[in-house]
Amino acid sequence: MNKKMTIHSIQQAKHKRPLVMITAYDALFAGLFDPIADIVLVGDSLNMSFAGKADTLSTTLDQMIYHTQAVGQGAKNSFIICDMPFGTYTTPELALNNAIKVFQETPADAVKIEGGSDKADLVSHLTHNGIAVCGHIGLLPQSVRSEGGYRVKGKDEAQTRALIEDAKAIEEAGAFCIVIEGVKADAAARVAKAVEVPLIGIGAGSAVDGQVLVFSDMLGLFEAFTPKFVKKYLNGAELVKDAVQTYADEVDSRAFPDEMHTY
Ligand code: KIV
After folding, report:
1. pTM as predicted
2. Best of 83, 143, 225 to mutate for ligand 1, by most ligand atoms within 8 A of CB?
3. How far is CA 231 from CA 16, 110, 211, in A?
4. Residue 3 pLDDT level (bands cut at 50, 70, 90)
């Protein structure tokens, strides 16, 4: 079994090998990913793929704490990051109180916060008070309503420079790594070069320092929609539906339970 990563080893990985991050929301899947992934992210995407909501905005801190506790039961050997949900970090004080609650009630090693230069003071306040912070720049799912949709970033020089400024500002504020989402590959590559901390991409091309995918997307379990950047490594929904249909057919025909599955 691989040794659990630390902030130091995550940062050292930057020029050595790409980091593997995946989301998990429960102990069952976290346990399956634990021996393989470097970092397990308890993403607020759980509000969509676990709770069935249209976006992440109604996720609560209590939900994040509950799911991070569950993930901690399965992922004993992975570095765990817990997303701070929408509305829980509107001021540095509120952010610190809520992040302390996450640290006290769950085994999270770090929290993740969406935003760039505008969140630098807040990131600095958290890191100066013992909370490790992963940044999140580019397409920000928590801004979907204010931006009127999910908008790919880094499409021109001005946007690319803004992303570089965002990454530098939160790195300087103390973030130990940064997720970059929904950004043109050439822009993301420039951001990765501009900072010393690892830049972990999702829909941001391959010239970054690691990748993260939402597990229910990459296992083909989430059917509502599939963004262009998602590669389905399993046809999960079809496999599950076929299995449950076979079970239902066998119950109907009394083929299940057979002798082998009967006391
Ligand atoms: O909530 C989440 O799963 C995330 C990923 C999209 C990075 O933030």
Report:
1. 0.97
2. 83
3. 24, 27, 12
4. confident
